[in-house]
Amino acid sequence: MSWQKNIFDALLALDVRHVAYVPDAGHTDVIQGANEHVRMNAVPLSTEEEGIAVLAGAWLGGERGVLLMQSSGVGNCVNMLSLVKTCQFPLLILVTMRGQEGEPNFWQNPMGSITGDVLSLAGLEVRTIDQRETAGDMVAAAGEQVFKKEKAMALLIEQKVIGVKKFGD
Amino acid sequence: MSNLGNSLERRDVVGQLLANRGDLLVVAGLGSSCYDILSIEDSSADFPLWGAMGAASMMGLGLAMAQPGRRVLVITGDGEILMGLGGLGTIANKAPSNLAIVVLDNERYGETGMQKTHTAGPMNLAAVAAGAGFPVTGTIRSNEDLKAAIPTIRQQPGPVLFDIKILANQASDIPSPQDGTMLKQRFREALQV
Asked: Does A44 contact B65 at a Cβ distance shorter than 8 Å?
């Protein structure tokens, strides 16, 4: 069972219904799962900050969601995160990192180098997933905090965890 | 200063939109729209956005998807919706039939000194929404247009977007509860979620 599948299963167990995303290869299995599972609603976005408002609206309506993006998208979210802080909306963001070890495109480095700091400044608790074995458990633990205590949390999935996507991985 | 072709008064429009509202849920966008809904009543079935410009339509989408049995109406301004036009595509792609958006379009940034928005120029928001994939769109310029459109806004399967051209005059601010955590909790309690 792959680490991405473990993340998807953790989200299912948390009763996450809405998966809002701007795609990244590192989120492939979760996005596919969200599009296929009867209890999930996949919400493709045109830009990442839309997802923050979509999930706040879903919470107003009584349902849980998760937001998937890569690190470049964090920069798009900054002002929208004021909604989360002001109203204490629960927010769970999974961020696949770019601009780290193995990055082929150095234009990704500036945003990648400040991703965690930006999220911290905006009021989110930031945790790092640095190995595949712990990914599912870390999502499960973060989700408990987020939805039971209306907290905002981001999990940064390091680029070395994502690696090269292989068939059957 | 006023946009000469437009005659509708914003609070009269909002009063008509919310008359006999039943179980309608409302999200209002940053700026005058929040005061406009408060001028009718301070309802726990309303969520006013006092910040996060550009959020209103997307919050309406999330709420509509989580509450498919309830009609959700987003009331916002032209400046507010211009900040997130890509979101119209996101909404059309999910196509929630219970979501309607009305833009109180005074063709101005009302909170910052009445500077013109793009809708004062050639931009047509109803055409933008139609192009994004909204099945039901229109532009409202008169009270007759408004009366004819209200059943569509309140009931017709959507998503629906109407651009309502209004006078560019400033309505008064109203003392308003702005504690976001309270507004969120109050809304959820009213929905019993």
From this structure: no
Is the CB of A53 less than 8 angstroms away from the CB of B64?
Answer: no
Encoded tokens for A52: 């923050």
Residue in chain A nearest B89 by alpha carbon: A46
For residue B175, give its domain range.
Answer: 3-191
Name which of A50, A83, A89 is nearest B84 (Cβ-Cβ).
A50
Average pLDDT value for residue range A149-154: 98
ipTM: 0.96
Q: Round to the nearest angstrom and report the end-to-end CA distance of chain A.
A: 8
Number of domains in chain A: 1
CA A142 to CA B183: how far, in whole Å? 25
Q: What is the extent of the structural domain holding A152?
A: 3-162
C-alpha count within 13 angstroms, C-beta hemisphere, residue B34: 22
CA-CA distance, B163 to B161, in Å (whole number)?
7
Structural domain contains residue A99: yes
Number of domains making up chain B: 1
Cβ of B27 under 8 Å from any chain A Cβ?
yes
For chain B, say whether A52 makes contact (Cβ under 8 Å).
yes
Q: How many residues does chain B have?
A: 193
- pLDDT tens column, A113-144: 999 999 999 999 999 999 999 999 999 999 99
Taking 70 as the threshold, does the pLDDT of residue A167 lie above it? no
Instruction: Tell me the pairing of strands B25-28 and B136-140.
Output: unpaired
Are A14 and A144 in contact by the 8 Å Cβ rule? The answer is yes
Q: Does the residue A167 lie in any domain? A: no
